[in-house]
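[retry 2/3] CocE/NonD family hydrolase: previous attempt timed out, resubmitting with same input.
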Amino acid sequence: MPPSRRRTLRAAAGSVSAALAVSAALGASPAALAATAPARAAATTVAADAPATFRFVDIPGSGGVTLKGNVFTPGGYDATQRYPVVIMPSSWSLNDLEYIAQAKNLADSGYVVVSYTPRGFWLSGGRIEVAGPQDVADISKVIDWTLANAPADPHHIGMAGVSYGAGLGLMGAAHDRRIKAVVALSGWADLIDSIYSGRTQHLQAAALLGASGYLTGRPSAQLQQTLADFLASRYDKEAQMIAWGKERSPDTYINQINANGAAIMMANAWGDSLFNPNQLGSFYDRLRVPKRLEFRPGDHATAEATGLFGLPNDTWSDAERWLDHYLKGEDNGIDREQPVELEPTTGGGYESYASWADVATTTRKLALGRENFWGTGALGGDAVSGWSTRIGTNVDSGADGGIMFLSQLADQLAKIPPMAEIPLLPRAYAAVWQSGTYGTGQRIRGTVHLHTTLTTTADKASFIAYLYDVNPLGVGKLIAHAPQTYIDRTPGRPFGVDLDLFSTAYDVPAGHHLALVIDTVDPLYITHNPIGSHLTFSSPADDPSWLSIPLN
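[retry 2/3] CocE/NonD family hydrolase: success.
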């Protein structure tokens, strides 16, 4: 790991949320924000004392739509010189002022940088299409305009962005061969697996995206209908919603991305409330291009938030190194580093791995056991099969995934994740299994998997599985969780359940133990248990229930 990475800037620089950083970017003048960006030595010939030039522009998009944007150009350039290009689409509900500090920083080091507001938001024309075909066509139009109106090198074009801008960058890599490098920060690969994982509507995520879209833009008729069907749990429209989401998912175009060959860097937070880490890990595994994957503590866009001020920030530092290598050809070593870099949610500095599969070196399978007098089953040890446990539905047991943004931001800044007092959880509404106390620390790395058997008293059922790190006083800190919904099931007929919890990197201290909790209500999700229904989890002798823990 190079010395610049050992600085471990993340905690000091991460004290401001993404929302705060963006608000400041929108409220401050371009000059004031640009002044916060640290100066960098130019890799391309630029006059040493000449400031980058800045201008607002109108960019013709596809279908006659006008996109609002701005351009930074290296100062003191020769009219005959051409510079590498970075295209930066703004985040959802934000505009092209979002990247002022980072865009100037890049321009000072020798890039032409074009930021633009995607169609449907703020003053850009058109309707919000959520990375649909019109948005993809806009990317190529922005590149065309840049080559015609700026000293841009047509052979060295990249994209970088946060959230919506990240997803657009990946979509651009699939559809425009001129793009040679992409930096996708807090983006998505599979839109359906992001906000509809386990066939469960992610309520807070969808509501926030919908509300902010209406507040700052003009949703298309198709988006309005899809969002309405989604929030109303219209499973009769599920096929249409999935088709809509897949069309807007970079994962759908993985073969095109691989064929086009753009170098892809992705960086997200473990607790991202919009785009969970599982869908990115799967996408990363199938990339056959130069690639890099980074995970840090926090929620959506909080890990890179302070970089929007131009403050020192590890995520943006790596982003610039990535662009410098693949657009400028700088030999800065990023291509020789281990391509998977993780920072555990519990702290302890960065860890580097050769691949996503190498994050876990072993897997421990813990059997789920019969509940005792106190209503708690064993997790591992001498747990045996041949049992069943039944819980009621539609009552929140107190085990929850937290509140969007706030809970994971508290974990990022103060190491205070969502917590629950495990002994006090009502066993009538929560199934609980606990392991023995660990004499040594347990380094959980990767994706926890649950296998069990479920029987419902209704034709549909939802549950949420949680894994907790429990201290000697019984206080559990949430390690990972995930929801699951089943529709059109035969009441009374058992069926197998396999559920991946959201991936993580978490260190369980010596003297603590693990607890698996399953209940049926969480404020993050829409659940589908009819009133009065019950769920029965069981462990038949021929198909025992277990929980696998990935360890390093």
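[retry 2/3] CocE/NonD family hydrolase: Confidence is low (pLDDT under 50) at residues 1-45.
[retry 2/3] clearing retry counter.
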